Amino acid sequence: MAFVTRQFMRSVSSSSTASASAKKIIVKHVTVIGGGLMGAGIAQVAAATGHTVVLVDQTEDILAKSKKGIEESLRKVAKKKFAENLKAGDEFVEKTLSTIATSTDAASVVHSTDLVVEAIVENLKVKNELFKRLDKFAAEHTIFASNTSSLQITSIANATTRQDRFAGLHFFNPVPVMKLVIKTPMTSQKTFESLVDFSKALGKHPVSCKDTPGFIVNRLLVPYLMEAIRLYERGDASKEDIDTAMKLGAGYPMGPFELLDYVGLDTTKFIVDGWHEMDAENPLHQPSPSLNKLVAENKFGKKTGEGFYKYK
User: Fold this and answer.
1) Looking at the whole model, is its pTM more than 0.85?
2) Residue 70 to residue 112: CA distance in whole angstroms
């Protein structure tokens, strides 16, 4: 399944109405900003489905690591997809990798791209500065999209002059496996339809929603995870029993504490803190002492070797 979140238009000027009725953009060339886990995953699925891709990050070392990770992931895909034809699998990997270029200068590569997908740090100021700069160099038709999981898309789009060509396009981790993708108030119908087509071309199943905090999945998932922590903090049940109960009773592949460690406790805290700042009275958005303590100790979960559980 794939997930596109869309913010429906509230008001449109005559010029944007004309734009909305114009021909959809067929996305062929994609620029992905951010070579981390999400950015590399987006670059991989775009390249594997026939798109030319430029992956951008700050240093060549980061990009080399990203390219290596993409190759390893592609070989896993090829092993399953071409189990009976290893040569075809190798050709698939090489062909996909050949369509991914890298750059450390985003402004120099966005002039000819159809879509810019941002997957950098979850910091509104940093995202705004990036898009404000790229807005000056990108072509008129270029669509901008953010992969943010918690920030308001409208707040990012307002840093540009192309609010009608700006949307949320949220992929879930791991991108090559999980098929979930997001969109805003000023986004034109043309842009929305272009992104829906692009998502389908990636093999995803896009869904749409308004530009609401957490969109659909995180809006439901994060309060569930936080309530699991509160259950544990009150001493109502152990984290092991809570995980087991949700796996056996609800059929979830992971219990909430396993999922928290997989997602990253720092990421969860960032989302909850942001929501709490926006709506401090909401009981669903209250901070957690145990989560705050673990994050303060740099115990973020699997990526650091310890979170609610220890990993070796």
Assistant:
1) no
2) 24
